[in-house]
Specification:
Elements: H1 3-14, H2 22-34, H3 36-42, E1 47-55, H4 60-72, E2 75-81, H5 87-92, H6 97-101, E3 105-109, H7 125-149, E4 153-157, H8 178-192, E5 197-200, H9 202-209, H10 211-214, H11 217-223, H12 232-246, E6 253-256, H13 267-270, H14 282-299, E7 303-309, H15 312-321, E8 334-338, H16 342-353, E9 360-363, H17 367-376, E10 381-382, H18 392-397, H19 409-412, H20 414-430, H21 434-440, E11 444-449, H22 455-464, E12 468-469, H23 477-484, E13 489-497, E14 502-514, E15 519-527, H24 536-550, E16 555-561, H25 572-575, E17 579-583, E18 587-593
Parallel strand pairs: 1-2, 1-3, 3-4, 4-5, 6-7, 6-9, 7-8, 9-10, 15-16
Antiparallel strand pairs: 11-13, 12-15, 13-14, 14-15, 16-18, 17-18
Helix pairs in contact: 2-4, 4-12, 7-8
Length: 613
């Protein structure tokens, strides 16, 4: 490996280029393209995705700037760059190069200048909405036409409201103003968008970046660049995070320090009454603001954890007794305060929460601690924390480390589920044996076809599960939606409740039915790590064999494809009597004659609901 290649790879995977200018990033992109074969050979872990970029404008600079950000997120992009202002022609022409490319993702860049019909001034709000509905109906038809011909997921920009307020102050006071109409278009499209389409929030990005900086009329008139060149890095980062989240590369837990991170001062020196959480002091208020931000992250499903060099009893007292402390001990899913090195404690937290190190984010005001974690645990995302605590919240938000593609009820209940896990552990400690423990949990399971409203969670589970994942195949929501109506496929979801909590959907199974061979292929089977060692897989296998018998099938096939993280299920099929029929370096294929199956004993409290017939 040449020194130049090493430098390029270190730049990409350390993400040091995130602070670079757009022109510097595009220079890096050219080096990547020149050496892409060698980089891919050196990093087979990179996930290859075909990504098309089209627009109603010039997308050449966006296409170039995106490449390093995708690679930094573990994605090796195969890029298709559409023609200048070629979005409509590429999609409406059935023999276009876009369809021949057959992308996994289509990034569609649009602009407020695409809107040519506005309601006349003084039009009623009803007429304004009628105009918006008509426009959005046309847009939905346009994208459904594309989806009928290509199963790509679409990442479409919403409309960035321009900094051209023709009515001045009246724009916010007249329902027929152009700004109001563009906002109504965004909201209407959000309400009516199909499942295969996800918005890139260009409006929020432009507002955060600054409208006067985002819109560069000179660049538009010269090259039809939709926004300023200097905005390309943040736009590219947003796209890369969205695609990474869609294929299951998401962060789940924020680990935070305590002293000078959640409060001002050193607890061991200043005592509980000496630390600064004073709402009447600007420094104290800054730390309280950061605690409020963490509370909001927790409420949206992010796990919070403490990793601090402190006395654990005294540290917990702050959350229990300090009158101004917003966060409480129950807000944290893991709490480690001792004098060991933080990389050691971070690994303990990952083990306690049963999640990978690549699911963690570390926030610590001490640059030496941050540097140590970066060096020892490079898979953990470390936030560059500013010196001013007033900037803590925005540093976390603008890291985009918790940009998820979906949000489900199960996500919102995650912290509650972990608290229930602790109660289960306590129950396990007093049970006479493991069988007694499982019976004492009073588990209730349901296995049934996934309903339309469950497909969002079904898709999320497939894309984010790594340990109990037999084939490691990923499907986007549009593909799952299509499978749900395919007569030769069955989508099963498994839900679980016990005496402590309701887990919701914890397992997703896709079956391919081959009636001519009287065979069922288990295309996909994933299960949440939250419910390992409960006998769920035994109950599912009992169900699958019963389903096969009831529907006239004679054999069931399965496959195990080895990945760095799914060794847990390497011997799953042999455990149930499946016989191996084919083997390669990375996979094993199995088959089972259902008459040879011996049902497993399980400890669930009532019969399965939703049994297929």
């Amino acid at each position: 490996m040449t020194t130049d290649i090493k430098t390029i790879e270190n730049t990409i995977f350390s993400k040091s280029f995130y602070s670079w200018s757009a022109s510097e990033i595009m220079g890096l992109s050219r080096k990547i393209i020149k050496n892409q074969s060698e980089i891919l050979a050196n990093h087979p872990e990179l996930v290859q995705k075909r990504i098309a970029i089209c627009g109603t404008c010039n997308i050449r600079f966006i296409s170039s700037g995106l490449i390093p950000f995708l690679m930094a997120e573990g994605i090796f992009p195969l890029i298709f760059e559409g023609k200048f202002n070629g979005l409509s022609s590429e999609i409406l022409s059935s023999d276009s190069d876009l369809y021949a490319f057959d992308p996994d993702y289509l990034i569609a860049i649009t602009d407020y200048r695409d809107i040519h019909e506005f309601p006349p001034y003084l039009t009623s709000i009803e007429k304004v909405r009628e105009t918006a509905n008509r426009r959005i109906k046309e847009s939905v038809h346009f994208w459904e036409y594309f989806h009928q011909r290509c199963r790509s997921k679409v990442l479409l920009t919403n409309i960035a409201i321009p900094n051209r307020h023709i009515l001045g102050g009246l724009e916010a006071n007249l329902v027929s103003g152009r700004d109001v109409f563009l906002r109504i278009l965004n909201l209407t499209f959000l309400e009516k968008k199909p499942t295969f389409l996800t918005f890139l929030d260009q409006e929020a990005l432009s507002a955060d970046f600054g409208k006067d900086r985002w819109f560069d009329d000179s660049e538009w008139f010269i090259s039809k660049q939709p926004f300023a060149l200097e905005a390309i890095p943040i736009f590219s980062l947003t796209i890369a995070k969205q695609i990474a989240a869609d294929i299951g590369k998401i962060r789940k837990c924020l680990i935070t320090d305590l002293d000078n991170t959640l409060w001002g001062g050193i607890l061991g020196d200043d005592g509980i009454n000496g630390i600064n959480l004073d709402p009447n002091d600007p420094i104290g208020e800054s730390f309280l603001d950061f605690q409020k931000t963490l509370k909001l992250y927790k409420d949206r499903g992010i796990l919070l954890a403490v990793c601090s060099k402190n006395d654990p009893v005294i540290a917990k007292e702050v959350f229990q007794k300090h009158p101004n402390c917003i966060l409480k001990t129950e807000d944290f899913s893991a709490f480690i305060a001792n004098w060991e090195d933080k990389p050691i404690n971070i690994q303990k937290i990952a083990s306690q929460l049963n999640i990978g190190l690549d699911s963690l984010v570390f926030f610590d005001d001490n640059p030496a601690e941050r540097d140590l974690v970066k060096k020892v645990l490079p898979m953990v995302q470390v936030i560059d924390v500013p010196e001013d605590p007033a900037e803590f919240s925005m540093a976390l938000i603008r890291s985009h480390c918790f940009d998820w593609g979906q949000l489900t009820v199960e996500d919102l209940n995650r912290s509650e589920t972990l608290r229930a896990d602790r109660k289960r552990s306590e129950l396990g400690a007093i049970a006479l044996n493991y069988e007694d423990y499982l019976k004492a949990l009073e588990m209730r399971i349901s296995i049934a076809k996934a309903l339309p409203y469950e497909l969002n969670r079904f898709t999320q589970l497939i894309n984010k599960t790594n340990q109990f994942n037999l084939r490691t195949r990923r499907y986007n929501e549009s593909e799952i939606t299509a499978m749900a109506t395919d007569p030769d496929k069955v989508l099963l979801r498994v839900t679980l409740q016990d005496k402590f909590s309701d887990y919701g959907i914890i397992s997703a199974i896709i079956l391919n039915l081959d009636h001519s061979r009287k065979n069922i292929l288990i295309d996909t089977w994933v299960m949440s790590c939250r419910v390992f060692k409960r006998g769920i897989e035994d109950e599912v296998m009992n169900y699958l064999i019963a389903f096969a018998k009831d529907n006239g099938f004679q054999t069931v096939e399965g496959e195990y494809v080895c990945s760095p993280r799914n060794g847990l299920v390497a011997d799953l099929y042999p455990r149930y009597g499946f016989k191996m029929v084919q083997q390669s370096d990375i996979s094993k294929k199995y088959i089972l004659d259902i008459n040879d199956y011996v049902p497993c004993e399980t400890w669930f409290n009532f019969e399965l609901k939703g049994k297929e017939s």
